[in-house]
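Risk register update: the risk of archive-format incompatibility is retired. Evidence:
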Amino acid sequence: MAIPQTFFQQCPTSTFTPSITPLNSINCRNLKFKVFVCSKSSSDRSETRLGLPSKGRLGTDTLDLLKECQLSVKQSNPRQYVAQIPQLSNFEVWFQRPKDIVRKLLSGDLDLGITGFDDVSEYGMGSEDLIIVHDALGYGECRLSLAIPKYGIYENINSLKELAEMPQWTADRPLRVSTGFTYLGPKFMKDNGLKHVTFSTADGALEAAPAMGIADAILDLVGSGTTLRENNLKEVEGGVVLQSQAVLVASKKSLTARKGVLDTTHEILERLEAHLRADDQFTVTANMRGSSREEIAERMLSQSSLSGLQGPTISPVFCKRDGKVSADYYAIVICVPKKDLYKSVQQLRGIGGSGVLISPLTYIFDEESPRWRQLLGRLGL
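Archived output:
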């Protein structure tokens, strides 16, 4: 069977234009065809699109966070890449690889995305169209770091400066670095004055490269550092390119030009910020006998961990005695961080508190979201 010479021809702009071959000129008996459905262009669609990581721990933690913010993602089929968040109208969720989230934000196919800051930095390549809306979602923490062997000529090398000053590195024998970060790696080395460096690309198992003799160092994401230690490698002082965690990122063009994107971003940001601020915070309620609210407040504010967010809330507790209604007790309510919880309970008891009740918090809404103010400032609004 004769197969057509080409179905696609590459254009000078590195895009692909289909070359059409008449169907009756092809023997289709043994051919298998894939059907590709072209989505609407970014200028035609009206929906706001959010890109989420499709797999892995980052994807799972992202879905958990959104669920805790009452923004549960609903998929009609777990194999589909598109989903909905019922609380948000005219809104679509698209599951993508983390790096593709960044690429599609730049192309205009997505308006918002949640991915690692390392992906935004590597694949965004400093684009001014990418705006970090929330920079600390609280998971996916890691660092992009340079590591070298613990043995041989590197045994006494512990800093980037010492590594750069090793006489071995010349134009004929440069420092060989294995990494998947082909934008951030060269930029970091250049910014730090390392002249004789070459890079080889790899997507995984970088820790084996020095032992195999194909690299002198690796530049990779590091969490606890256990994998480095188990492969006899060490990080160098001054070799951290960036600290990363999950972030909410947006296309500046979408925020300023696409109807509804800014309002939807505002709601998502407020939910995220309010929930994350409430994380590890507890409401503490107790009864306290006193002559007045002012006298109770004086006692509470004399203790280091009983001030709450802006001060204690104090209300009279009414009871009926001998046919008369009176307020012998006052109910106090404060917000306390988890780490100070037991200390706060002890201080409450010490100044006459009783019947202490403790409840976890879900949201803490400010008068206005600080990050929202920052975003409007960056947009010039």
